[in-house]
Recover the amino acids of this structure.
């Protein structure tokens, strides 16, 4: 009995990794950002927009007529 | 029992060794989800608006565009930033993606860059890039 189980395990073992990779690829097929990553990117967008508004405000102060 | 344990251990060891090997396959990266695309494009839009503003100020200082044109671009940039901020805020909200994309699509309706005759090529290129970026967002939220 034991040699048969050992043989079965050794036979199936090469199939295990491709199967795991296939399952993983299902999740990777349409990767979504984690909530933390979304927050970080949205914050970066807000910061860039705020910096541009500050640039505009400074230019308005020094050149009110454009 | 001991033999089975050894067999399992051997099996797991082989599997882990396989995992540790450097990957030589050249599998292309999977496409990003539409939400991920829009977040990245929104950041690109923020950078492009910033670039247009800085270019406009520099060209005004160089005398290559009139103060009136810079004023027009400044005012447009403020409205464009307001639009991009609403997109970013929506993307950071708890809404589902289907709700987010519907709202973003409506936000983009009617967005356009200012029309100025004889505009400097640098600003023209910036505006063309911005409209292309907005088109990318519209495509992503239409999927």
């Amino acid at each position: 009995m034991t040699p048969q189980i050992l043989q079965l395990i050794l036979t199936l073992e090469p199939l295990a990794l491709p199967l795991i990779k296939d399952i993983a690829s299902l999740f990777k097929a349409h990767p979504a950002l984690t909530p933390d990553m979304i927050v970080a990117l949205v914050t970066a967008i807000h910061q860039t927009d705020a910096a541009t508004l500050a640039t505009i405000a400074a230019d308005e102060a020094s050149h009110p007529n454009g | 029992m001991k033999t089975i344990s050894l067999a399992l251990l051997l099996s797991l060891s082989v599997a882990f060794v396989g995992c540790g090997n450097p990957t030589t396959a050249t599998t292309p990266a999977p496409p990003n989800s539409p939400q991920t695309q829009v977040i990245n494009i929104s950041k690109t839009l923020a950078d492009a608006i910033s670039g247009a503003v800085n270019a406009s100020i520099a060209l005004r200082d160089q005398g290559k565009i009139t103060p009136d044109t810079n004023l027009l671009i400044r005012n447009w940039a403020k409205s464009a930033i307001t639009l991009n901020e609403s997109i970013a805020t929506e993307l950071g909200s708890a809404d589902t993606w289907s709700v987010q994309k519907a709202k973003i699509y409506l936000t983009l309706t009617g967005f356009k860059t200012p029309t100025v005759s004889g505009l400097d090529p640098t600003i023209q290129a910036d505006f063309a890039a911005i409209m292309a970026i907005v088109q990318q967002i519209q495509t992503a939220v239409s999927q």
Summary: DSSP finds two helices and no strands in chain A. Helices of chain A lie at 2-28, 35-62.
